[in-house]
Amino acid sequence: MEFNYQLKEKDGHVIILLTGNLMEKNQAAGLMSEVHQLTESGKRHFIVNFKDFKYMNSTGLSVLLNILTNARKAGGDTVICCIPEKVKSLLSVTRLTDIFTVTESEENAVAALTQGA
User: Fold this and answer.
1) pLDDT tens track for 65-101
2) What gap in Å lies between CA 46 and CA 5, rounded to an integer?
3) Among candidate residues 62, 53, 51, the one with its CA nearest the CA of residue 20
4) Which of 57, 79, 90, 93 is buried most, with the most CB atoms less than 10 Å from its CB?
5) pTM for this one?
6) What is the distance between the alpha carbons of residues 109 and 117, in angstroms, rounded to a whole number?
C-alpha cells in the first residue's frame, strides 16, 4: 500500500493523517517540506494520526522524530494518536512512547496539546 498523507487544521493545531506504508525516505519528502514550511509560518503544534496507517520501518521513525524536532524547535510539540498495534509495538520497542505523548483519539490529542500550550 502506497504512503500518503493529508494535512488539516483543528483548533490551531496541524493534523497529519497518514495512510499506507512508510518504507523509504523519499516517500516522506513532501510531508517534511510542508512541516518545515508550516513551522516557518508559525505553526508549532502537530498531531500525527495513524488511524488509516499500516506499517513503517526505521524511515518512518525518523520522519516522526523530524516532525517532533521541528515542532519543539518552534516552541511547540507533537502528539501521536490512533496507533495500530504493529506500529504501537515498534514505537514501544524503540522507546519512542517515552518521547511522544500518545493518545487514543484525535480529540484527546487536541486536548493534550491545548493543555500543554
Assistant:
1) 999 999 999 999 999 999 999 899 999 999 999 999 9
2) 13
3) 53
4) 79
5) 0.94
6) 12
